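User: Structure tokens for both sequences below?

Assistant:
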Amino acid sequence: MTDAFRFPAEWEPQSAVLIAWPHADTDWSERLAGVEETYVALVAAITRFEPVIICIADEDLQVYAEARLRSARIDMARVRFVPAEYDDTWLRDTGPITLRADDRFKQLDFRFTGWGGKYQASRDDRLVGELSGMNLFHNYFVQSIDFALEGGAIETDGRGTLLSTWQCLHERHPDVPREEITARLSEWLRQDRVLWLDHGYLEGDDTDAHIDTLARFAPGDGIVFQACDDPTDSHYPELMAMADEIAALRTRDGQPYRLFPLPWAKPVIDEGRRLAASYANYLIINGAVLIPAYGDQADAKAAEVLAAAYPGREIVQVPCRPLIWQNGSLHCITMQLPEGLVG
């Protein structure tokens, strides 16, 4: 390693969570009312435990959002709005990836290409730079990296092990061999191990198999993953193969990981299209884990699994069925910020 910076795990102490408020000029326009309800519920859940920073497109939208949040009796002392331009609200993929070295911070600004050129993303690609000019963060600098990478594509245990899916990185960089991508990620993200999954996908996912929809690290060498127990479901062969891959992974001490399979929700069909209802797309915050709820009987079982994987944290369900209409869920619309980065 060339410096003392490291990539903290999501369960380490945080100073705030960063989100962007949806509006009529984003892809949410057709179903804005429903998704706003999810955002209100999300902000209510986060502010019980820590502050939230909300990117807002203009002053009129801020007035409107403030009114929505106040009507829900949210603690506005824990809410901060910052003006920003954005194409959409998937902050996991467009927000800063933050490394830390004691009380110093480095934010990595990778290229955001709209998940491989699928969507317009020029404003989203500028978001990290825009935030850096707001006197929002402390004792940090931004490193711009000319390499397409989204935050939802990577998962760290905070101790130097990265987990990702080869499908996603290969789709972004088809001419770059695995060994080279491994080396680059290891250097930029200060990791000494990269574990690749070659299986796993969700219908309705347009990210090319982001890891945060499939498998996540948990403290004490745990891995939480989206399982499928229905042999008649189209996902069954691929998710079973992924489960076998995860079972074969080893910790840096050569031991199997402790495994926490998540239940499988019934198919959510919207206008003939199946949506990606993954329970793996949860958010860890100070003292709690926020889990997507889809109005399915499996919601309660998923909460039980996360309670076992993250003992001592409150498990809070957030209604996310409106989100999956746009192919993402709870983790996708958020980005945690390490403790000390925000004053």
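Moving on to the next sequence.
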Amino acid sequence: MNPTNSNKGIKLGLLFLGRKRPGFDMEWGAGIEIKVREAVNQSNFEVFEPSKKAVDEVSLKEVVAECEDAGVEALVLLQTTMADGRMAPTLAQIWPYPPIFWATPEKPEGNMISSCSLVGAHLWASSFRQMGRSSDVVYGDPEDSETLEKLDTSVRSVAVVRKLRHTRVGVIGGQAPGFANMATDPFAMHQLLGVQLQTYSLIEFENVLKDLSEDAVSTDVETVKEMGLEFKDASEADLPMASRLYLAMRHFFDEENLDALGVRCWPEMPNTFGQWPYLGIARLADEGRAIACEGDADGAIGALIGETFGMGRCYLSDWLEHDEETITLWHVGAMPPSLSPPAGESGAPKIAKHFNVKKPTVLESELKVGIPLTLFRLWRCDGEYRLTACDAESVKARPLMCSNGRARLLNRKPNDWFEDMCRAGMPHHLNIFQGNHAAKLKRFAAIAGIRWFD
């Protein structure tokens, strides 16, 4: 299986809504239930089905409690024959996350209404919206691959929403000087996303760095050597401090129970510690850690969204320039090595010194050519969170120091997008992921209550 499309760790609850008395074509509904069960159990999600159907308030509470006890993250509800709409407010009270209402088709022959499933799902979804709650609706045959793809996106989206409501993001040192557009508001972050923000000073970071044992540092240096990275103008003598910076950042993930981390990497770090932390940031990103340079907490949350969605590793990049078709992606030297060509090929990662302040350690590398990409950004403006995304493909970039790439947009002009996003207040960092996921992110935004910008 492609690791960027893995559903590992997502548990789906499959809940059938029934009827106390027979109605519509019960035989047709039973047949659809079998098809749904077969289709969902063939997916890569872990599936849990409660012990019975929900037919009234009491039984709904019982089966939702079973799902909670089983650790279900996304709840998919079906009424293959229309169920009692009076259960919808009960679900809104007992299930705090967006539910997914899957409506199945009518029997294609005969003059009798067979299920009224779409009407039922429409009723529940509309009721949820009018109660101020979000949900999602999937409509289609369980044997249709397009239906299952939509279901996949919905389940992933709900899993991300749930993840964010339990997410703890840290920022070390605040945002970089002048980057006020990336400043964090812990209360807005909690109110709008459910995310908890914790801040740490550079002094706290330095204390962690100094307390690292020489054995731990030596062991990590050997780990870096085993990566087989070439050197440009840095050397093995630079690796101990690079490892210290990496281990200190990893400490905050592990010991502070962080899901995402923004690090103020300049201007103090190279002056205080003699090195930049970008080799460490690149390594952590390649391990699937949601990390951002320059104290960009929302950029780190964007990385976490992509990781949770199954999109793979995140490269956080500046939007350096653009022409009629392409955007030049460039940043400080922290691209995950897995997004670059392998050792020995042009553009492969090399351990180097920073292009401006000539201190180690950065990764000088190029983005692989000929791969699908998604460029997206989550940010806060005007009291709301916003999201935008665009599908692209990587093309050959002109040589630039540090991390470098070039993306050809597939469905719009770069300058049009740039001007629209400047008017919407979008910061200059983009989250770059392999694969085309813009449509999925748009669906996620709707489910999460985040304003979408095309």
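User: Anything stand out in the second?

Assistant: The chain has 14 helices and 19 strands.
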